[in-house]
TrEMBL record:
PANTHER family: GLYCOSYLTRANSFERASE, POLY-BETA-1,6-N-ACETYL-D-GLUCOSAMINE SYNTHASE. Residues 5-142 form the Glycosyltransferase 2-like domain. CDD domains: Beta4Glucosyltransferase. InterPro entries: Glyco_trans_2-like (IPR001173), Nucleotide-diphossugar_trans (IPR029044), TPR-like_helical_dom_sf (IPR011990). This is Glycosyltransferase involved in cell wall biosynthesis. The keyword Disulfide bond does not apply. Keywords: Transferase. One of its GO terms (molecular function) is transferase activity. It comes from the Bacteria.
Amino acid sequence: MKTISLCMIVKDEEEVLERCLRPVRPFVEEIIIADTGSKDSTKVIAAGYADQVYSFPWNDDFAAARNFAFSKASMDYCMWLDADDVMTQENLEKLKIWKNQEDRADVVMMKYLTGVDEKGRPSLSYYRERLLKNHSGFWWKGKVHEAIPLAGTIQYTDMEVLHQKVKKGDPDRNLRIYENMRKEGGLQEPREWFYYGRELYDHQNYSRALEVLHHFQEMPGAWLENKIESCLQAAACQEALGNETEAMGELVRSFLWSAPRAEICCEIGRLWMKQKQWKNAAAWYQQALRDTRSLQSGAFIREDCRGFLPAIQLCVCYDHMGSRKRAYGYHCLAKKFRPDSEWVLYNDRYFSDTN
């Protein structure tokens, strides 16, 4: 049977830490926690579940903290979770089954659910490296939005981890770290520029975000999936600046690197809808429905863009074009995806009232 060291870094997580640790404790052989300066009861809670609890001086470097925790692991595999992550009993049972299988991949990928809708259904997900063979040279890189460069045999699984925040952290922390890196000449990797641009967008510094995202897109070695995602971010910047034509151009730029993605198509469709160009919008939403991209690409997957969203928008488009039969058909399709959506319920009433 494979053994697991769960390695975590925490700070002021008293509200969520026990929620994370209690279910997972019976399924791992070792828990190692590096506390980076908690002022609440986090370390006390950690001591009730962890085999080792360390104090790690925070130095604005997530990779350094995670690597410290990994360095203390003694089991076959290192696994990581954040304090506000949750593994359901169903997924923990899958982990138990995996542990008893003979295959020994170097890296085990699990789907990370980082966004949910009003009903708790996944709305944003992507695969992350979750279990890594110990003593095999796997180390975290990146002061912020840290990741482990993948190597060896990679296994994709149907196990899932839900990221479930209960409070907001410091909204300026990541941007502050990136700005300090830039001043010190430490922004070198394409991934760092990509996330720096996203942080600038989140802080509504749209013009500077565009400069950074465009620079990232031209960098040698920039990951294709991040390039495509950067087009969505750049388009949002242009739209926020009132440049809708340029926003469309940013989205189309993604076709340099890939066939149209559902997320891109939905944004192009939305921009056409803003101009009441219903036929043009419908063409792009239909393309979104045809996207069958593998979830194992590593990209940010917006679940609704391959089903509910284009269906509900096609209902609107065809209704405006006077094709009631097609509009109703797409309403029925949207209803299959999300029968309890307020938009679907509204359209139920609309079609009932106009029959």
